[in-house]
Design a protein that fits this description.
Helices cover 47% and strands 10% of the residues. The chain is an alpha/beta fold and 406 residues long. Strand 9 (277-282), helix 12 (286-308) and strand 10 form a beta-alpha-beta unit. Helix 5 (139-152) crosses helix 15 (378-402). The radius of gyration is 24 Å and the shape is globular. It binds adenosine-5'-triphosphate and magnesium ion. Magnesium ion binds at residues 139-140, 163, 167, 259.
């Protein structure tokens, strides 16, 4: 046993370690930055804009909800957009082609909204907050795939990155530290002093029908400024700043998807107050579920405070979505069963399976929807995409129900 007393020699040794650690960490940070920089230069040369791949006729038919033979007939009859023909005479459709087809098909649809499922007169814009303060619970993966799937299905979508870490931003080809040097995040539109119109921070993406408000570290300002504004009595209803900003573009979108940071700060509270639908991501492991209990209690407490100031805390729906789920893992299955028993229909039936296809796509800053099927073993790709589609389509169904359709 040590005596507990640190001698002079020990102390200077401790300082030496301390200094070394500073240097070591700085050195590691520099290595990492340099490596990431060169990796990015390789993957995304500075002037290369990200592009969306084209879809096979089978994929296009499935997204549109028609038979491939019908799509082929339209093409042969010269109706609608002309797909690209491969040397093997296979047809490839761009997202814009599919959108044009939607408009064409909707004209003669059996039921209104079969091909353009977005809002109609009287339907309100859906604002979906994806949250959980547990880091790595799959918020960004869920948000990005949901936003892209809805856009591919013909909804007009706005994705908002509310996380200063800006993962969803990077996933969409915007480099937070290079492309956003003069602002350009939602912070510009929600700050207390001289807020900018939200339209000024909305960008088009490489997917028609999907716009993005990127994020970066500047969003942290909102966390710092809100207490100050509150103390000075200038914050007003701070928790409605996101909602009020979104009201400016209410006519332009069917669905807004907000990727929240992994903490319950003012940004998340504002997203929660704006949301008409809330998705809580859960990785079904014991530690995650334990921390979720705290997350839920703190959220409820904070919402009580907001409700006391007269705000309406009602929402259209709230669901838990199981993420990175491994059906072969017995402990995970016990937790899933436990959650389903406890929360019933509030847990989405579909679950996002853990898949190397999803994480590998993420490594090259892509969603699985952006990757060609040929990039992976077919069964791996199919299993992952089926699980993603099932989750996203269940959410689309909730949206439709909110609008009084099913
Ligand atoms: N279904 C999945 N299969 C495999 N890997 C996944 C899956 N979902 C997410 N991941 C990986 O897990 C990691 C964390 O996911 P993600 O970034 O979506 O979580 P997050 O909740 O947004 O994290 P943070 O709290 O840091 O914002 C990422 O590396 C992602 O690629
Ligand atoms: Mg994230």
């Amino acid at each position: 046993m040590h005596s507990g007393r640190i001698g002079d020699a020990d102390q200077s040794a401790a300082e030496a370690v301390h200094e070394d650690l500073n240097q070591l960490i700085r050195q590691h940070s520099e290595w990492l930055a340099a490596q990431l920089h060169s990796q990015r230069e390789n993957l995304f040369p500075p002037d290369a804009a990200k592009m969306m791949r084209k879809f096979t006729s089978g994929e296009a038919a499935s997204l549109l909800g028609v038979n491939d033979s019908y799509l082929r007939k339209l093409h042969l009859d010269g109706k609608g957009p002309s797909p690209e023909l491969t040397p093997g005479n296979r047809r490839l459709y761009s997202v814009q082609d599919m959108l044009d087809l939607r408009h064409l098909l909707e004209k003669t649809a059996r039921k209104a909204g079969d091909y353009l499922p977005g809002r109609r007169d009287g339907d309100h814009m859906q604002i979906i907050g994806v949250m959980n303060f547990k880091g790595g619970s799959g918020k960004t993966t869920t948000s990005a795939h949901l936003a892209q799937r809805l856009a591919l299905k013909g909804y007009r979508v706005l994705a908002i990155d509310l996380d200063p870490q800006a993962s969803m931003t990077a996933l969409h080809g915007v480099q937070p530290e290079l492309d956003l040097q003069d602002g350009g995040t939602l912070y510009d539109a929600i700050r207390y002093e001289d807020p900018a119109p939200i339209a000024s921070v909305i960008r088009k993406t490489y997917i028609p029908n999907l716009d993005l408000i990127p994020g970066n570290l500047e969003l942290m300002e909102f966390e710092h400024e809100t207490p100050r504004a509150l103390a000075q009595g200038q914050a007003g209803l701070f928790f409605f700043r996101v909602k009020d900003a979104l009201a400016q573009v209410d006519d332009d979108y069917d669905v807004v998807v907000i990727d929240c940071p992994p903490q319950l700060g003012f940004l998340t509270m504002s997203a929660l107050s704006a949301a008409t639908g809330v998705l809580v991501t859960i990785h079904p492991e014991m530690l995650d579920v334990m921390s979720m209990s705290q997350f839920l209690r703190m959220t409820a407490d904070l919402m009580d405070v907001i409700a006391e100031s007269g705000a309406d805390m009602s929402h259209d729906w709230m669901r838990y979505v199981l993420t990175r789920y491994e059906p072969s893992d017995a402990p995970q299955n016990r937790i899933v069963a436990f959650l389903r028993t406890m929360y019933g229909e509030k847990v989405l039936n579909a679950q996002m399976l853990k898949s190397t296809a999803i994480s590998d796509a993420g490594l090259t800053k892509q969603t699985l929807y952006e990757v060609e099927r040929s990039a992976f073993t077919r069964s791996t790709y199919d299993r992952a995409i089926e699980s993603l589609n099932a989750v996203n389509d269940e959410i689309a169904e909730l949206i439709q129900q909110t609008w009084g359709r099913k």
